[in-house]
Amino acid sequence: MVQINEYYSQLKENYLFSSIARRVENFCALHPQADVIRLGIGDVTQPLTPSVIRALHDAVDEMAVKESFRGYGPEQGYAFLREKIAEIDYRQRGINISAGEIFISDGSKSDTGNIGDILGEDNIVAITNPVYPVYLDSNIMRVGKYTKIVLVSCREENGFLPERPSLHPDVIYLCYPNNPTGTVMSKTQLEWWVRYALDNGSLILFDAAYEAFIRDRKIPRSIFEIDRAEHCAIEFRSFSKNAGFTGLRCSYTVVPKALKARSSVGEISINSLWNRRQSTKFNGTPYIVQKAAEAVYSPEGQAEVRETVTYYMHNADMIRAGLTGKGWKFFGGENSPYIWLKCPGGMDSWTFFDRLLEECHIVGTPGVGFGIRGEGYFRLTAFNSHEKTAEAIERIRGWDESKFFREQ
Amino acid sequence: MVQINEYYSQLKENYLFSSIARRVENFCALHPQADVIRLGIGDVTQPLTPSVIRALHDAVDEMAVKESFRGYGPEQGYAFLREKIAEIDYRQRGINISAGEIFISDGSKSDTGNIGDILGEDNIVAITNPVYPVYLDSNIMRVGKYTKIVLVSCREENGFLPERPSLHPDVIYLCYPNNPTGTVMSKTQLEWWVRYALDNGSLILFDAAYEAFIRDRKIPRSIFEIDRAEHCAIEFRSFSKNAGFTGLRCSYTVVPKALKARSSVGEISINSLWNRRQSTKFNGTPYIVQKAAEAVYSPEGQAEVRETVTYYMHNADMIRAGLTGKGWKFFGGENSPYIWLKCPGGMDSWTFFDRLLEECHIVGTPGVGFGIRGEGYFRLTAFNSHEKTAEAIERIRGWDESKFFREQ
C-alpha cells in the first residue's frame, strides 16, 4: 500500500501566509465595511515598469509568429539573461561570476525549497530562528525536524544576528537583508561566516532576495563580495521585490563552479548536481518572462528599479518615523523593506496580530510565525502604497493600545 | 563537511535530451551547410494562437496599471482557471472533478518530477521500460535505483503495453497516449490497472499530457473516466502540446479529494499533502500565463486547439505513410504525435541516430534513451511543420539504408 512521506506530519498544518490569509478573509467576511490595509505578506503593489511591459509585449508578439516562436528553452535559462546578470549584477561590481554559474528559475521560493534535493540526508542543517518558513519547512519535509536541524537563535540583544553555532553544521542558511527582522550583516560579520564555512567544509545557502534595498554602501550585497566565498556558498536572488515580479515569477541562483563537495565517488561539482536537478525536474522559466527580466538590465530598467526601491524605502522611513513617535521599539527598515517591531506592552505576536487587525484594520505578520524566537515581535512591510502606508501609520498613531497591556 | 545526495551518482551523467542537443550541436558545427530537420525532442513548432496572444497582451496591460496589477497569486493557481478546467476538461465530459482538486503549475515535468516529495521512501515504484526519463531519474534521485524501483517491460509482442507486474508496486507510473511509443490504452486495459491499484492500495500516477491527440473516441482521455479511479490516481495534464505552451509553461495536476493514504498518524488526504508541498516550495504560475491558459477554454481557443492538433496529426499521418512505404515497422502515430519505429536491419538505436543524422540530416530520439527495452527502436515526432516533415519523409524515402545493415 502506498506510503506517504511521514515527515509531512511534523509540519505545522498550514504554511504561515496561508494561515494569515484565511484569518484576514474571515475578518473581512465579518466586517465587509472595514478598509483593511495589508502590511503583512511581502508582496509588492507597484505595477510593472514601462520597460518591462514593453519587453513583455514584444516577446508575446514574437511568440505569435512561427519564425520567432520559442518552444522549450534551456532549463538553466537563456544565455541572453544569464550573460546580463553575470555582467551587471556581478562583474561590474568586481565579482567574478560567469553565465554558466547562473541558473534562472521561477522564484527563490522554488530554489530555496528545492536545493535540498541535491544534499545528503545526514547533513546537520543550521537555520536561524526566527526564519523565513520555507527553509525550515522544506528541510522538515526532507529529513524530519528532530535530529538534523539545528536552530540558531537570533536575539534582540545581538541585533537579531545569529549566534555562532555550538556544533558544526554542514549546511547554513543565511538571509541578509534578513526576512523577517530587516537586519543586515556587515562585511566583517559575513566574513566570519565564510571563514567558518571554509574551515568546517560547510555550505552556506545565502538568500539575497532583498539586496536591492541596501542603502549603506559598506554592507555587502552579495556573499561573493567576500574573499573565497565561491568555495562555500550558493546565492539566491530574485526579481520579485526590486522589479515587482512577484506575479511574473523570475529569480536566479548562483552556484559557483569552484564549489565542491565530497561524495563516495570522489569530489563532486555542486554546479553539475544542481544542473542535473534542474534539467530533470524543471523545464525553464517562460521565454517572455526572461525577456522581461532582461529589460530590467537596460539603462531605463535599472533607473526604474532604483525608483521603485526608493518608493518602497520611503514607506519604510514613514513606518520607522511613526513607530519612533509611538515609542515602540523596532529593528530593520534602514537597508530592508521589513520593520521588525517589539509588540508593545509585552503582547504575544498573535494577540497583537488580532488586535491590530480588529482595532486598526491593519494586517501584519506575527513574529512567532517565523519561529519561537520571534514570539513577542511583529513584522511590517514597506511594500504598500505611500497613501496606504501613511494611513496605516495614522491609525497606529491614534490607537490606544495600552488598554490591552497585560501588565494592567 | 557537507554531503551530497549520493543517489545522483547513480544517474546517467546527462539528461537524455541534453545529450542529444549536444550531439546535434557538434554535427551542425562540423556541417554548417546541413539543413537539419528536427523530429527528435517533442517540442512544438506552431506559434501561439490568436486568442492566446490576445489574452497575453491584455494580461500584460493589466500588470502595467496599479489598480489591476497582480503580485503573488494562489500557489494552487487562480480560481478562474481551475474552474474552467474542472468544467470543460472534466464535468462536460461527465467526470466529477472540482476546482479544489486541480493544481496549476509550470509544467508536467515539474509535477511528475516533484510528486515524489510527498511519497515515502519505502514504496515499491513501478516504471515502464521504455519510459519518459523524468519518472525514472526523479525516482533514482529520491530512493536510488537498486531496491525500490521495478521496471515493467513494454514489449513489441504486447503492443508496448506494460506487463502485469509480478510483485505489488505501491506506486505505478502510466503515460497514455504513451511517450515514447505512441501507443494508447483501451478502456478495458486501463480498467484493469485501476482495479489492480484499488485491490492493492497502489497509487497510479497517470500522465495524460497527450490526451488531446486521441482521435479514437473509445480510448479514454482521462483516467477519471474509469469508475472509482479517484480513489487511486493522480492525473497530469499540460498545455504544452495541444496549445503550444512548451515555451510559455503551464500545466495542471488533478489530485482527487477522495484519494487517501495510510500514515502513522492515520489516514491522510493526498490532496492536502500536495497542497502543502506546493504552498511551501512553489509560488504559483505567472498570472499572465494563467490568463493565456484560460483563453484556451474560450470557444475560439478550443477551435484553435483542434486545428493545431489536426495540423500535427497530419504530420503523423505523413510519417506513417512514409514509413509504411519504406517497409519499416512502426507503432503509434494514430492517437499520438509519436511514431515508434523499429530500426531497420537490426541497427541499434544510437547507430540509427547517427546514420539518420549523417545521411539524412534528420534528428530523432534513440529508443534506448528511454530504457533498455527501447534498444533497437527510435522515436519520431509529428511536431515539426508540414513542409519539414514532408521533406524529412522524402529524404528517408530516398535513403539507401540497407548498405549499413549488420546482416550484410
Question: Explain this structure to me?
Answer:
Two copies of one chain form a homodimer. With 408 residues, the first copy, chain A, is an alpha/beta fold. Chain A has two domains: 7-47 and 300-404, Aspartate Aminotransferase, domain 1 (Alpha-Beta Complex); 50-297, 3-Layer(aba) Sandwich (Aspartate Aminotransferase, domain 2). Helix content of chain A is 36%, strand content 15%. Chain A contains eleven helices and 15 strands. The first copy, chain A, has helices at 16-30, 50-63, 79-90, 108-114, 133-143, 187-200, 270-281, 287-295, 299-326, 349-360, 386-397, and strands at residues 37-38, 102-105, 125-129, 149-153, 171-175, 203-207, 233-238, 251-254, 260-263, 266-269, 330-332, 338-342, 362-363, 365-366, 377-381. In chain A, strands 2-8-7-6-5-3-4 form a seven-stranded mixed β-sheet, with helices on both faces. In chain A, strands 11-12-15-14 form a four-stranded antiparallel β-sheet. In chain A, strands 1-13 form a two-stranded parallel sheet. Chain A is globular, with a radius of gyration of 22 Å. Chain A starts with 15 loop residues before the first helix and ends in an 11-residue tail after the last helix. The model of chain A has no long low-confidence stretch (mean pLDDT 95). Chains A and B meet through helix 2, helix 4, helix 5, strand 9 and helix 7 of A and helix 2, helix 4, helix 5, strand 9 and helix 7 of B.
